[in-house]
Amino acid sequence: MHASQGRSAGLGLALTSAFAFGGSGVAAKPLIEAGLDPLHVVWLRVAGAALVMLPIAWRHRDLPRRKPALLAGFGLLGVAGVQACYFAAISRIPVGVALLVEYFAPALVLGWVRFVQRRPVTRAAALGVVLAVGGLACVVQVWSGLSFDALGLLLALAAAGCQVGYFVLADQGSDEDEPVDPLGFIAYGLLFGAVLLTFVARPWDMDGSVLGGTADLDGTAVPAWLLLGWIVLIATVLAYVTGVVSVRKLSPQVAGVVACLEAVIATVLAWVLLGEHLGVPQIAGGAVVLVGAFIAQSSTPKAATAEPVAGSADQTASEPSADERDGGVRVDGGARVDDGARVDGGAGGDGPAAGGAGVAAGKAAP
Predict the structure, then answer these.
(1) What angle separates helix 24-33 from helix 38-52, to the nearest 10 degrees?
(2) How far is CA 340 from CA 169, 299, 327, 331, 337, in A?
(3) Are 136 and 285 in contact (CB under 8 A)?
(4) Residue 316 and which of 91, 202, 338, 359 are 20 to 30 A apart at CA?
(5) What is the pLDDT of residue 359?
(6) Collapsing DSSP states into helix, strand and coil, what is residue 251?
(7) Alpha helices in the chain (DSSP H)
(8) Closest Cα partner for 131 from 103, 154, 157, 161?
(9) Residue 147: phi, psi to the nearest 5?
(10) 241: Cβ–Cβ under 8 A, 6 or more apart, which residues?
């Protein structure tokens, strides 16, 4: 019961994160069309979110001392790296192609879990990844932009690698005696990311007057500051908080596959709010992504059986099992129950996602 409830809560958080990340593009694109450089939009987004999370960072000011490498790694990969590589990629190859390559990340997550962490991966998890990536190819209409260069492809693959870092690092430290608080983890990740992006985006060259004017949202004049507020508060703060917590409640594999919905959501929002065309292949592809995400998140691996140690038969017979002693297990692909043993090898495949096909400024992170 508790495991089912925890997994349902994790799935709800993952969907919220996908919606929040996916909604970034429809707000960012009008700002870019109004005169802001895409990298400046990214810097405003991350720096603004870091400023919002600053009180939380102060509250957890012991984290940099306890986990400096973890926080720096998340800021480098899950915040700055994934966005910088994505924007560099779309400057050379079509947005849809860059999105598809980046969302190869769930498959890379499965490879990391299976061959690096040596956890079992279910067939349903692999099937979910295949369906999600295949459906995404239809959503972004990859066949419409196959003329890309090798450097652009390498940059998109780098964005996928950074996204793997987002999912893997978000799950680190969650099963320790003193778990890393997710809010503090996100706050310092954004701070590190903002510092790194400052050197890449060069915000001192930004045209700040754009933020005092209006931007065109499919024929409607919207205050630029309102769009920026949406990007900072919803598409970054809310997206990262719900995304990281969902990874810990589900698993990096499952959360990674559900994150593929971000591109679908972004495409639909661009259709509704920006008037961008949504064809039959995109609708069909979105349905396939949904099916893949459902298969991945609903599959639960079998618990690993502990092998008895030679010469410890009496001790094994007299001691309670891990389940009885700790009161529960964590099954990746499901929820964490109490503080018991952790059974690895869940289903599925964020992270943070791009803002959607045709929306060049929609990269979320992560």
Answers:
(1) 130
(2) 21, 21, 6, 11, 7
(3) yes
(4) 338
(5) 45
(6) coil
(7) 2-22, 24-33, 38-52, 54-59, 63-66, 68-73, 82-90, 95-102, 105-111, 123-139, 150-170, 182-201, 224-232, 239-249, 252-258, 261-273, 280-298, 313-318, 322-326
(8) 103
(9) -95, 85
(10) 182, 183, 186
Please tell me the predicted confidence (pLDDT) of residue 332: 43
**CA–CA gap between residue 341 and residue 221 (Å, rounded):** 55
* CA 192/CA 310 separation, integer angstroms: 48
pLDDT tens readout for residues 64-100 = 998 999 999 999 999 998 888 877 777 676 666 666 6
Backbone angles phi, psi at 91, to 5 degrees: -80, -10
Sign of the alpha-carbon dihedral angle for 76, 79, 82, 83:
negative
Between CA 332 and CA 60 the distance in angstroms is: 27
Of 366, 267, 354, the residue nearest 89 (C-alpha): 354
Asked if 92 and 147 count as a contact pair (C-beta separation under 8 A), the reply is: no
Contact 364, 81 (CB under 8 A): no
